[in-house]
Amino acid sequence: MKAEIAAILLAAGALAAPSEKAPRKSAAACSSAVKLDASTNVWTKYKLHPNTFYRSEVNAAVEAMSDSSLKSKAAKVADVGSFLWLDSIANIAKFDDAISDLPCENILGLVIYDLPGRDCAAKASNGELAYNEISKYKSQYIDPIVAKLKANPNSAFALIIEPDSLPNLVTNADLTTCRQSKSAYEEGVAYALKQLNLPNVVMYIDAGHGGWLGWDANLKPGAEELAKVYKNAGSPKQVRGFATNIAGWNAWDLSPGEFSSASDAKYNSCQNEKTYVQKFGAALKTAGHPNHAIVDTGRNAVTGLREEWGNWCNVNGAGFGVRPTSSTGDSLADAFVWGKPGGESDGTSDSSATRYDSFCGKPDAFQPSPEAGEWNQAYFEMLLQNAKPSF
Ligand code: BGC
Q: Residue 375 Cα, ligand 1 centroid: separation in angstroms?
């Protein structure tokens, strides 16, 4: 059944020539230095920027489509704000394009994602730095990003710090790879928080999702791990809290939650992200860590697709979710954001690839799928067709 759907949706993969950019204001128009107050919700003032990188991916996807009604819907996705992943030293260069058309009332979302020994509990997003390359992480990755943020004092930035890293230290410490990466993750995240603590920056440290650190036994150790690293960084004042559901699939407030009838549900009181934000937020407060959240709603429109809660790779049948907004109805949730750029793959389904992870070959994972971060046209079209609200 799922294979059939996949076959129907499988359109030509495409990376067409970049198409025209919509007219936008230049950052030069912003005449005064930005000072973000991380004791307040900055998303009530700033809108997440639809960055040029995702815009050009989406524009290329539109070019590759033939159905005119789908094309016009797809074109609207280019105007949705999303985070730009600086996922390698080379990709720091993407910053320059992204900043060039940032209006004063927008905030540029950046994902800091290049830790030594990255993605220690999986294979799909293993990074470029070995677990012992912490000095390279500092001098060739974090420092150049800091320089760029300092060079743009009149622009506002929201940073998601190192998805999956600290959660992996809490729950996957038994794996050799995570054990090896532990000191580099803790030192690297602390260094990032300390150096990126600039007046025009607000930071959210990744805390997985309700199906990860939301288990009763993980709430306290998870909060304590984040707090330890935050304190090691000198409790930087631009840290606002935590990021949840990044590249994830959980619904915001579905009740009963998607996995509420699973046999182990009694051990997890965070069956949706809203409850997770509240409970993990409370645990963070106790541990002495700022506790406001941003939540990724980029791909969480459809529920009931995953065979197991932990299935994370290219979930088949998914749809674009709620657009970025500060209207969350919850005082601890600053904003819904698009963290993962929908259409970019979570990992390859090619079992002969070095970065093949078996999660990307599961029956509920969309196949074929390219390497993590690469564009999957068919997957993008599926997200569009299943979007809620629709485009
Ligand atoms: C990949 C990155 C990519 C990001 C956003 C991650 O899974 O490892 O390379 O930039 O997703 O698509």
A: 10
- Residue minimizing CA distance to atom 9 of ligand 1: 373
Within 105-246, residue ranges assigned H as helices are 134-136, 143-150, 165-171, 176-195, 216-232
Sorted by where each begins, the domain ranges of the chain are 33-385
164 as an active site residue: the answer is: yes
Residue of the nearest CA to atom 3 in ligand 1? 373
What whole-number distance in Å separates Cα of residue 211 and Cα of residue 328?
Answer: 20
**Which whole-number Å values give the CA distances from 98 to 34, 207, 298, 342, 377, in the listed order?**
17, 26, 20, 18, 22
Binding residues for substrate: 85, 87, 209, 212, 312, 340, 344
pLDDT tens digits for 76-117? Answer: 999 999 999 999 999 999 999 999 999 999 999 999 999 999
Q: Of these residues, 114, 164, 206, 296, which one is catalytic?
A: 164
Q: What pTM value is reported for the model?
A: 0.93
CA atoms lying within 13 Å on the CB side of residue 139: 4
Q: Please give the CATH number for the structural domain made up of 33-385.
A: 3.20.20.40
What is the CB < 6 Å shell around ligand 1? 85, 87, 125, 340-341, 344, 346, 372-373
Q: Say if CB 127 and CB 188 are below 8 A apart.
A: no
DSSP state of 324: S
| pLDDT tens track for 286-331 | 999 999 999 999 999 999 999 999 999 999 999 999 999 999 999 9
Q: Which two tokens mark 313?
A: 């790779």
Tokens representing 57 are 């991916």
Alpha helices in the chain (DSSP H): 2-9, 52-63, 68-77, 94-100, 134-136, 143-150, 165-171, 176-195, 216-232, 273-287, 377-385
| Residues 337/240, Cβ–Cβ less than 8 Å | no
346 is catalytic: yes
Give the distance (Å) from ligand 1 centre to CA of residue 320.
17
Task: Provide the greatest CA pair distance for the chain.
Answer: 57
Among 114, 296, 334, 346, the one annotated catalytic: 346
Tokens at 310, concatenated: 């932990």
Residue with CA closest to ligand 1 atom 8: 125
How far is it, in rounded angstroms, from Cα 249 to Cα 251? 7
